[in-house]
Amino acid sequence: xxxxxxxxxxxxxxxxxxxxxxxxxxxxxxxxxxxxxxxxxxxxxxxxxxxxxxxxxxxxxxxxxxxxxxxxxxxxxxxxxxxxxxxxxxxxxxxxxxxxxxxxxxxxxxxxxxxxxxxxxxxxxxxxxxxxxxxxxxxxxxxxxxxxxxxxxxxxxxxxxxxxxxxxxxxxxxxxxxxxxxxxxxxxxx
Length: 190
Description:
Blueprint (H helix, E strand, L loop, with lengths): L3 E5 L14 E14 L8 E18 L6 H6 L4 E4 L4 E2 L8 E6 L14 E2 H25 L1 E2 L5 E2 L15 H14 L3 E2 L3
Parallel strand pairs: 1-6, 2-8, 7-9, 9-10
Antiparallel strand pairs: 1-3, 2-3, 2-5, 4-6
Helix pairs in contact: 2-3
């Protein structure tokens, strides 16, 4: 049986948020990330958006048992898009399939105060990029992601994101500096 893999470009880059042991650094050409809102979730989150001039870093991981059901449930607001020809990876044999999850066109909108980015979610994403790709890779994350005009809800004291992680002081400082450099609008807990 051909092995199925997925390309994670957000929280799935943080290995502490999942148990996918067969995971490898990778990149996907023809995509960028965007902060978007979907009526399927109360907050904004990352999606992959086709973009011929962009390339994003992430991880590919084997889908356990080559059964997409559990991963599809975790990624319920997204559609699974074939991406075999777009993903560069270190595997010696090409996987049977590689998919990337993206919110379908027409099913997402701009973030707003009613559906902000959760800082606890962004923290998890950046912690993963710092650990996998270092500060240069985390900087590429910020550069290859759009939608930074979205409000960011500071929920660090009481994290809303279900897979939140504890950050080191250095990781928190890095996130704070990047958001300040972007001029991000931070809103207080609701």
